[in-house]
Amino acid sequence: MDRFEGQNLLNFIKELPDDESCKAYLAKIKWKDGFTCSKCGSTKGCEKKGYNYHCYGCNHVESASANTLFHKVKFGLQKAFCIVFEMSTSSKSLSSIQVGKRYGIRQGTAWYFMQKVRKAMQSSQKHPLDEIIHVDEFTIGGHEEGKRGRSYDVKKKKAVIAVELTKKHQVKRVYVKSIDDYSAQSLTPIFEEHISVTAQIVTDKWRGYEPLKQHYNIEQKLSNKGRNFKELHVIIHQIKSWIRTIPTHVSKKHIQAYFDEFCYRINRSQFKKSIFHKTIERMVENKPIYQTIIRQRLSV
Fold it and tell me: Global pTM?
């Protein structure tokens, strides 16, 4: 099988029933353009049993999962593929507690691998938003009683969102970035990373956007309690509702990874058939992640 398409779980299990079939899938992606040794750079070698490659230059034997985000997966490739399938095709997030119970692995191990998948879901920043863009800030954690406007509670997680709309005002793409405050300095990165200087940008009257007018085409108008940014606030509501479905605390340190996951799926809503394959490709292209897992719920 060259690539799996679709969202049917039974078909997925049928096509990739064991670790060997998953290794074969990885090997086709990893060496589709030929073999290059990760140790010496040689392109001469031969494929060996078990979907490994033997380098003629230095005799290094490399597996299909080596030097990818599947490197040294301890619980088997089929389980890893199943987690990728669920994270890429589901509209709701899974917690590491749920994944651990579902696949019979430790919660910390599940969380660590899910962070690898989210790493693959990060934006390449190669395709900036370039049409009608609505930008606003929001917080995760609800409203403060008796207060209106922006929350300055240090316990709340702050973010800025950019939503690209078509001429018919349909949501096309979304990017969200965690911020420390509402200053122009904190708001600038989402513009530099995700928005074209030729885009038509609309924000509310917040003064933090004023300095950005030097480089971007920004129109500022009253929010009118969100009525002038209806599509944007629908997405914000979806993000908050989605985060609430995770039955564990999401710390500020890791909230950006969850934003990346949300945006990855919504930006590929027109390509659901190929989203699993694309995610596997990205995991093969990314280098391994090494870090110590701190098994505390605050780190989930």
Answer: 0.88
